[in-house]
Write a structure and sequence with these properties.
Elements (H helix, E strand, L loop, with lengths): L1 H23 L8 H23 L5 H18 L9 H26 L2 H23 L7 H18 L3 H13 L3 H14 L4 H14 L2 H17 L4 H13 L3 H13 L6 H22 L5 E8 L12 E8 L8 E5 L6 E6 L15 E9 L11 E4 L3 E2 L5 E6 L1 E2 L2
Parallel strand pairs: 1-8
Antiparallel strand pairs: 1-4, 2-3, 2-5, 5-6, 5-7, 6-9
Helix pairs in contact: 1-4, 2-3, 5-6, 6-7, 7-8, 7-9, 8-9, 9-10, 9-11, 10-11, 11-12, 12-13
């Protein structure tokens, strides 16, 4: 901070010197007597010639007067100054005026274009870093809001830049970045932790969580590898088991998913609000396994998703595509959903019972459905301004297994 203000002061002094130096110098105009004497002699000769021409009536009196006046003007212009320019008093006033103008202009320019607000926010974040860190880690006081998490993130990055690597600080930085949905920064932070402490269980679990949010196959495989390493050391780590259960469920590995969910259920009391949800998920897996054993055909719909030309250039950066089916007359909960963080339109998607969010709410329960395609700017399925959407007409998926959806509406 001191170096910043020192740089400001140095630049200000340099600007003042540049502005004031011409006014505080002594400028001397040194006369050249020999040159002036020659010019006067020439003037007198020319004046005599004009007088002779007038006497001989070669020129009129008026021409004589005009020529003489012109000679005098030329002489005044050609004579070198013979006095020294010593106006130091006036120069000091001009220098003070110029310095004041420079300072005022710099202050106004910095006020409108500078980052004083960000600088003040950074200073505040550094002052509040211990208190924010205690609230985040120890859970003391009110939970951190989004602005406080941003301040904590800024303070941690500054502290790491100043004090060097600290595994605990990097771990906290990664977790805070995850709460702000900056998963790239979070994974970079967890990478730092694992370089310094390769066996850090908390970093592996958090890293796996951030990889699962990405939703791609490579991230899922890497997350499964990290979670397996955690369970080798801590076989009863519920966080790791829960995420492995989700990975198995996404891969439709029903036996592994059921085993993981049953292990999670065994650690919960019936009074736990999550108990019923996990039990329901196990029942859903049993139903899927029974369906696979019976080899019954699975209800599914093939959706061709495209985008209309007028809104093709309105796709937000880092957007997420949701394709989902809803009952034409029924609950608002989707019957089947697929999510794509990386997509290129047009795209063909298959929705089936395997994509149901709840076992008792799937394509088998309703005949008349409607398919939607929505491009979300924040990865949330809830509708928000600036997002794009398209939908099909209502149809009977028992009779029609293929439908086209054109994204053609900008939500405003």
């Amino acid at each position: 901070m001191l170096s910043l203000w020192g740089a400001f002061a140095g630049l200000t002094l340099l600007a003042l010197l540049f502005v004031c130096w011409p006014f505080i110098r002594n400028f001397k105009a040194v006369a050249n007597p020999s040159v002036n004497a020659e010019r006067i002699d020439i003037f007198e000769q020319r004046q005599q010639e004009l007088a002779d021409d007038l006497a001989l009536e070669r020129i009129s009196k008026q021409s004589y007067n005009e020529s003489l006046l012109e000679l005098k003007r030329r002489l005044l212009n050609d004579l070198s100054p013979e006095q020294q320019l010593q106006s130091r008093g006036n120069n000091r006033i001009l220098a003070l005026t110029g310095a004041s103008f420079v300072v005022l202009l710099s202050a106004v320019f910095y006020y409108f274009t500078g980052n004083q607000a960000q600088l003040a926010g950074w200073e505040k974040a550094m002052q509040e870093l211990p208190a924010l860190g205690e609230r985040a880690v120890m859970g003391k006081g009110e939970p951190l809001d989004a602005n406080e998490r941003q301040a904590l993130l800024l303070g941690l990055r500054t502290r790491l830049a100043q004090d060097g690597d600290d595994a605990v600080a990097w771990l906290m930085l990664g977790r805070v970045a995850m709460t702000l949905n900056d998963y790239e920064m979070a994974m970079q932070a967890f990478d730092k932790v694992l370089v310094m402490d390769p066996e850090n269980i908390s970093a592996k679990v958090s890293y796996a969580q951030s990889l699962l949010v990405q939703g791609d196959d490579s991230g899922m495989n890497q997350a499964a590898k990290l979670l397996s390493q955690v369970l080798q050391v801590q076989p009863q780590n519920i966080d790791a088991i829960s995420m492995l259960a989700l990975i198995a469920y996404e891969r439709k590995d029903w036996l592994e998913a059921k085993s993981a969910f049953e292990l999670i259920l065994s650690t919960m009391n019936e009074s736990d609000p999550r108990h019923a949800m996990v039990a329901q998920r196990i029942a859903e897996i049993d139903a899927r396994m029974a369906q696979s054993d019976d080899a019954e055909p699975m209800h599914q719909v093939t959706v061709s998703v495209s985008i209309a030309e007028p809104v093709a250039d309105r796709i937000p950066l880092n957007s997420v595509l949701f394709v989902f089916a809803k009952a034409a007359s029924g609950p608002p909960m989707p019957l089947a959903v697929k999510r794509f963080e990386e997509f290129s339109l047009p795209l063909t998607v298959t929705l089936s019972e395997a994509d149901a969010m709840m076992a008792e709410l799937s394509l088998t329960q309703f005949d008349q459905i409607q398919v939607f395609a929505r491009i979300s700017k924040d990865g949330d399925v809830a509708v928000d301004l600036g997002e794009l959407e398209g939908k099909s007409a209502v149809f009977n998926h028992q009779e029609q297994q293929q439908v086209d959806v054109v994204i053609n509406t900008l939500i405003q």
